[in-house]
Design brief:
Length: 333
């Protein structure tokens, strides 16, 4: 099964590798050592091309992609009407904006007129980074290099800053700490235009000990990602393969919550809904069979809270997500 993801330097590729290696283990093998399900990561750009690959490549079944980008592709009909061609399997983690800058760049305003790398054209960094900087009134000279070339350009002084949109911590960015004076620039969430489509987030010392000082933090913004799938016709061979993938992934999901896997797995709530999109039917069916659906879970959660002092609605939602994660780790309770 083909799994389209971002560049090998990004966390999304690490997530795909986690899935590929974990699901490859524990399966019964055939007479020649073959397994029933093999997940093959396919390098994309983590943006519009990844979705185009799922829509057009025969061997590409699923992709990790920013929800905001896929929503816009559907609204603009960039690839035609994709409402029925794509379905989501699960809402995933958030992807943070990592804006690295050279020593002489102290703030966003210092980037005016400077060369800033936003990543490959069509990727999340290029599309959304351009939008964010425009909304903040920062006019730059854009370049579209890959992560390795961008960091090398910063070391040489050819590039003043580089943006990478990916889930923290991005292991690749550990290399950036070896370049003297390279640091993260904060991206303020106070702008009302950003609050419409983005989430607040923070990069901390624990995430990047070589780039952020002890007890220090850098404010930034983030976007939600999801696992999208081509909506194969029922009873087709690819549909059955994708159904097997979903059943295996969901059943073995607790394995991904351990320390051996990327910490972003701990943000994933399989039962979370993705407004405006239909869930892949076998995934919805699995969730209903396991828990009676989110509505039943919320009723159970409400009964759990009866008679207990409750906090404000945002706190209640956070408690509900904790409750779901506990249910996923303890399916027999």
């Amino acid at each position: 099964m083909g799994f389209v993801t971002g560049t090998p330097q990004c966390t999304e590729f690490a997530i795909a590798q986690d899935i590929a290696t974990t699901l490859a283990s524990g399966q019964e093998t055939g007479p020649h050592g073959e397994v029933a399900l093999r997940v093959v990561p396919i390098v994309g750009n983590g943006g519009t091309r990844s979705i185009l690959d799922v829509l057009t490549l025969a061997g590409a079944d699923v992709a990790i992609a920013p929800v905001i980008l896929v929503d816009r592709l559907r609204e603009a009909k960039t690839f035609g009407d994709i409402s029925d061609k794509l379905a989501y399997i699960a809402s995933l983690h958030v992807e943070e904006f990592h804006l690295l800058a050279r020593p002489e760049i102290a703030s966003l305003t210092d980037l005016a007129g400077k060369r800033v790398n936003l990543g490959e054209d069509g990727g999340a960094g290029a599309v959304l980074g351009r939008e964010v900087l425009n909304r903040l009134g920062v006019k730059i000279s854009e370049s579209n290099l890959g992560p390795d070339a961008a960091l090398e350009g910063m070391r040489k002084g050819d590039i003043s800053a580089a943006l990478l949109v990916s889930g923290k911590p991005v292991s690749f960015l550990a290399w950036a700490g070896q370049a003297k004076g390279i640091h993260f620039l904060p991206i303020p969430y106070s702008n009302e235009l950003l609050q419409q489509n983005y989430l607040p987030s923070t990069l901390r010392h624990e995430d990047y000990p070589d780039l952020i000082g002890f007890n220090a933090a850098v404010d930034t913004i983030a976007i939600k990602s999801a696992l999208f799938a081509y909506n194969w016709p029922p009873r087709s061979e690819r549909f059955r393969l994708l159904e097997l993938f979903v059943q295996t992934l969901f059943t073995r999901f607790p394995e991904f919550l351990g320390d051996a896997h990327h910490p972003k797995w701990r943000e994933v709530n399989l039962a979370a809904l993705l407004p405006g999109w239909q869930r892949f039917r076998p995934a919805e069916r699995w969730l209903q069979q396991q828990s009676g659906g989110e509505a039943a879970l919320r009723k159970a959660f409400g009964r759990f809270l009866e008679g207990k002092p409750t906090a404000n609605p945002p706190d209640r939602e956070e408690l509900f997500r904790d409750f779901l994660r506990w249910r996923e780790r303890n399916p027999d309770k």
